[in-house]
Amino acid sequence: MKNLPLLLLSLAFSTALLAQKPAAYYDSGQIKWQGNFNLEGTDTIKQGYWIYYHPNGQLAASGEFRRNLKHGDWKLFYPSGIIKDMVRFSNGTMIGTRKQFNELGTLQQVEAYRNGLLDGEYKEFFSSGIIKVTGRYSRGQPIGEWRHFQASGSLLSISKFRVTVVGDSLVSLKNGLFEIYQSSGKLQEKGQYKDDKRVGNWQFFNPNGTIREAATYDQEGAKTASTRYDASGQPIKQ
Q: Residue 12: in which H helix or E strand, if any?
């Protein structure tokens, strides 16, 4: 058994090699990625926990693979090391809540996914943290009431959507109340949409809030009547 120490040393060295994860490097020598592979015939399949790095050595992304497909929670980072994206996958398909951040680390966007499509509540923020957009998606299309805000926090617009099938595709169409506001908070225009067409009575306003035009649209979106107003709010005779 005088060769036993040599055998144990060889076994320990082989075990260490097996435990070491494969890795790739930038030309600078900085590590680029590190992760595990499974060998299936002549194919190498990404499996388990992987880490990716920026050229400056900062963490770029981390998460798990399941048979070459992203699975579970993934995180992406800016070269500064600040979090950029938090997202969840199920066998390569995005699911659940996704959060995106700007380079200062401020939350920029919150999305909900189902089977790889936007589906559920959506929020977008200014870099100040003030809400910019709120709405919902259904099967990848905007649905229901959407609100856009100005950087000051005041309302910019309100619009409503419905989702329908056109041909072989799902599409989102403006349907219902539509309002746009000026930076002062005063109304700029107000009316109704039906399937992306202006219908019924619409009003358009001057910067000081006085009415500029009142118009009527038919069901095909054609303007059928219009009254314009002067600066004092009196109708202009046609």
A: helix 4-19
Burial of 65 (0-12, 13-18, 19+ CB in 10 A): buried
Look at residues 113, 158, 169, 156 and name the one whose alpha carbon lies nearest to residue 138: 113
The span from the CA of 217 to the CA of 222, in Å, is 5
| Other CB atoms within 10 A of residue 36 CB | 14
**DSSP code for 9:** H
Rounded to whole angstroms, what are the CA distances from 9 to 1, 18, 20, 25, 128? 14, 14, 17, 29, 59
Q: pLDDT (tens digit, 9 = 90+) per residue, 148-159?
A: 999 999 999 999
> Minimal CA–CA distance to 198: which of 236, 224, 167, 172?
224
The tokens for 60 are 């770029």
Beta pairing partners, 99: 86, 110
pLDDT digits (tens, 9 = 90+) for 3-44: 544 444 443 433 333 345 789 999 999 999 999 999 888 889
* pLDDT greater at residue 138 or residue 41: 138
Q: Are 222 and 235 in contact (CB under 8 A)?
A: no
- Give the closest residue to 161 by CA, choosing from 151, 171, 175: 175
Cβ burial 111-137 (10 Å sphere, 16+ → b, else e): bbbbeebbbeebbbbbeeeeebbebbb
Count how many Cα atoms sit within 13 Å of the Cα of residue 76 in the half-sphere of its side chain. 12
Closest CA to 160 of 139, 140, 141, 146: 146
